[in-house]
Amino acid sequence: MNKNRSGQTKFFALHHKSTSNFYTRSARKKFRSHPSAKRGGLRRVSKFCLVASVKPRYFKGSSLLETLIYAAILGMVAVFATGSILAMMRSYSSVKMSRDLNFSVSVAMERMTNEIRLANDIDDAGSAFTVSPGRLKLNTIDSSGVPATIEFFLSGTGIFVKEGAGAPEALTASTTEITNLVFNKITSSTVSKAVKISLTAKAKGSRMEKTEKFYNTAILRGSY
Length: 224
Fold this sequence. Notes:
The chain has helices at about 25-30, 35-40, 65-120; strands at about 1-5, 10-15, 40-45, 50-55, 120, 135-140, 145-155, 160-165, 170, 175-185, 195-205, 210-220.
């Protein structure tokens, strides 16, 4: 039988059915040759059995210093992983903000450029050049062939367009802030006219902001 006394010593009992041969020299030799008897020693506890005491095997655990070293390594790995994730998130937010800003301004710039090219003349009295916020009023023709006017101006933080007596419409997204809008009239001759557009746009996020400048020039085709 196997028995553990207080976790210190294990005993292995060797029983024999025949008691007549228990004290013979061959029997004792056989018991002493048993692996358990070699490890811990052999002693007799009764007339019918010999007991071999076995020394327990202890497993060495980690020390406090090793535990602290493992914890420090794990902490450094966690800090590095967290920093990498935060850097990737900031990079993604910056790219997305720049993309949205460029798309919003490109839509407004394309609309203003197309209307300038299709216009017949510039209404100097209704325009404000070389100042910010600037204003541009064009004399053009609508889809029905009727003379009309179209205006571009800055209201609040967005660029708006107004066709004739209609209501103003926003050209830039609400997340885009236009901080500067300037129109410059360019006259190369008595006939040809052009308008240069300069604007500064800013996009804001929760923890960052991005500012960019945009320029474009368009020639009035109806002026020559």
